[in-house]
Amino acid sequence: MHRLTSFGTGILSVLAILLVFCSVVLAQDKLREMFPGSKVAWEKRPEKGVASFAVAKASGDIAIISIGKEGMELSYLDESGKLQWKRQFKGRTYFSKPPGISDNGEVVCVYGRGRWELDLKTSVFDNAGEL
Question: What does the pLDDT look like over 102-117, one tens digit per residue?
Fold first, then answer.
């Protein structure tokens, strides 16, 4: 995952996800092509990979959904890429929508479905990770 900053009339922050089957070099080249004049502000590759994500427009906070064999995980990062909290949802996940996040990053909504035992349908968290 890369967070890019571009300078023009203001600061524009953009988050792009590196696909599992892309090399980092190819992804960086594609990002440079998409956002000329941008530079990488920080880079982080989540352990489980990224299924989907959302960025709060005003605060720059990031909600990331990862899906693995053990279930689904919601990670909440601040604009500098520092992990603030994460929540695990046990059970086999076969479907998840991208998370919803308010403009100020104070509310995150996630939805997922699994086979028989996934303990998540729709959950809403505040920016401290509480339901």
Answer: 999 999 988 877 665 5
